[in-house]
Amino acid sequence: MTRTAQSATEAAPAAPPPRHVVITVHGTNSQHPADEGDRWWQKGSPFAAELEAAFAKRSGPEIEILPLHWSGLNSDYGRLRGALDLVRTVRRLEKARSSYSIIAHSHGGNVTLEALAQLPPSNLRGGIVTFGTPFFTRRLKTVPWLIALFQATMGLVITPIMIWYLVTILGGDTNKVLETTVFFGGLLLFAAWSATRGLRTLLWRHRARRRCGRGIRPGQWLVIHSPRDEAMRLLETAAAISPQYVTVAAAMRSLTAFARLAGVVGTVLFFVATGSYFFSPIIEKLRAGTYGLAAAADLTFILLVPVVYGLIFGAVWLIARAGGAWLWAKTLTAAIHGGVVGAAYGGDAAYVLKGVGHFPPYVSELSEARIEAVNLGGIDDEAIFVAAHKLYSAVVASDAPDGGFADPDAMWKHLSDALYHNAYMRDSRVVDTVCDHLIAMRGS
């Protein structure tokens, strides 16, 4: 009986090892509603299949690809919203006690960075890998900074006052305990919320560095990039250039033209404001039928027109030549450059995207895989011609919207496949590097 039970126990299959979840975060313009497909981050894609095979080859854990869907727009607001979605996904996995790693491409790396800056340390978190991510450095825009400063100041000032009111009134003789508690207690809660909200906004960078410093182990983050990455070079160039869109001479001409307009408008407004003083005597004489020299003398106020015009024009002209033109040129150039960089970066959230770099700004110790152009396997200049041929063949084969020039999604897919920025996941050596990193970090 014992031997039979022992044999049955020995014959029973061992429990399968727990599955390791790999969260994939796509980049800009790579969004798709389906979890399965041929895009690198979807289940069943060539990259997913090759990664699963690499894990199996190394006797690693069975992995489960979990795509994260975010807007994919070139929008900082969209990336921050995607970060919140990633935070919720990670919390669900940690609640289920599932170990996980994160692989992100392009701006998906910024989504990952901002999510990890909001999460506490976790033993379930494995390796983090980013491909060709232009990591942003940020600062709060002026208006959000002022709002946060006001919230923090108001909350810190009002909170102790409300506490003092509550203690003083409730500690004395009062028959309105409920009213006092509701009114002053409500103001106390509002003030405390205001202080907390303002301080959290003002100290977001310090909090992000502290979270990442505690939550990301040395070497846990693997950064993979290439000097031939077009998207990275474009954004780095946009951040580095300091063009002079508006010259001082052009600003001088602009202010001179404005001086003429200001002179005309100012003269009209002057006589509208003083019309009763100048026109009333003339109107009275005309009604009385007096058309002599006295009426003509009253019209001499017209001589003030060139005087008023000249004073306004001269004031603007002098301001322009006393440094106003230089300041105006600088202001216009900064506004135009801010718009250009904002369009390139998608800076539509509460932060100014000041610069771009290869490495996440909140992480001090990480791993790096710098892939030289000649070593970026799976792509070369021939890929451009291959992609162009695919696009041409699709148009020739069918003039219908599907696959032709009328299908922007298909066109983008064909052309973007030729970019080095989208080729990291086609390199088998990169896949092996990613697999080794995730296995090592899962076991550390």
Structure description:
- With 444 residues, this protein is α/β, with parallel strands linked by helices.
- Among the domains are: 103 residues, no CATH class; 42 residues.
- It is 58% helix and 11% strand.
- The protein has a 6-stranded parallel sheet with strand order 2-1-3-4-6-8, sandwiched between helices. The chain has a two-stranded antiparallel ribbon with strand order 5-7.
- The longest helix is centred in the C-terminal third of the chain and has 42 residues.
- The protein starts with a helix and ends with a helix.
- 29% of the residues are buried.
What is the number of E strands? 8
Strand content: 5-15%
Order of helices and strands: HEHEHEHEEHHHEHHHHHEEHHH
> How would you name the oligomeric state of the polypeptide chains in this document?
single chain
Point out poorly predicted stretches: 1-9, 373-380
- How would you describe the shape? flat
N/C terminus separation: 43 Å
| Biggest sheet architecture | 6 strands, parallel
Share in helix = 55-70%
Taking all residues together, what is the mean pLDDT? 82
Number of helices: 15
How are strands sequenced across the largest beta sheet?
A: 2-1-3-4-6-8
Structural class: alpha/beta
Give Rg in angstroms: 34 Å
Topology of this structure?
Elements (H helix, E strand, L loop, with lengths): L1 H10 L8 E6 L20 H12 L5 E6 L7 H20 L4 E6 L2 H9 L8 E7 L3 E6 L1 H30 L5 H26 L1 H12 L5 E5 L4 H11 L7 H26 L1 H14 L4 H6 L5 H42 L5 E7 L9 E4 L11 H16 L10 H9 L11 H16 L1
Parallel strand pairs: 1-2, 1-3, 3-4, 4-6, 6-8
Antiparallel strand pairs: 5-7
